[in-house]
Sequence to fold (250 residues):
Amino acid sequence: MDKFDIQSVSYNDTKDKKFDYAILPWGATEPHNYHLPFLTDCYLAHDISVDAVRKVYERSDLKGMILPTIPLGTQNTGQRELPFCLHTRYETQKAILTDIVASLDYQGVHALIIVNGHGANNFRNMIRDLAVDFPNFFIVVADWFKVVSQTGYFEETDDHAGEMETSVLMHYRPDLVDLSMAGDGTYKPFKAQTLREGIGWTPRNWAKVSEDTGVGNPHKSTAEKGKKFADAVSDKLAQLFIEVAKGDIY
Ligand SMILES: [Zn+2]
Fold:
């Protein structure tokens, strides 16, 4: 197996290789109920990426590289004032992404897939800007948690630190989950009907929405459910990586 993850790779592993595409896992640093760590979105985006890149190695001779996970996400009020929570503004995220794209471009790697693990991150307009600044560079973003429908895998739909995220982290990092500490993740929808219906959008004030910072019930989570879902997601992501790396787009 080729080494491809920045967490273990050395220059010796890479010096005679040419990489076809790069993966940038992007998470956040934010509270996840009482039972999951602040870096949950980072671990999940990274670990799913590792599985997907490994599958690409098994299915093709395309060489992928997994870059360091970015732990800086965009946060709502009601979360960002809590200790350890780090809000990152659009301009900062765009500057980080731009410098990474410039580095890859300089190294001759021209395809990047951002594997996003945090619902509030939104890279689309940055990617539109970068498509003009780097016309020979191709950037794709995939929200890993939306790649496969949760229906059939979980009893309750996850929004934040619920059954899906908890189950998948129990699969990848069982030592980091203490389900006995979990709050119920009960949340209060907007009183305004039009905001509930999605006619208008505004970020939720997290403190008014949830007591334990969770949105979604984690109590039915299991590592088995997490593994099944993660396998389905990494299958699909592997297919995406292959198509993007080959440039099979239009
Ligand atoms: Zn999360």
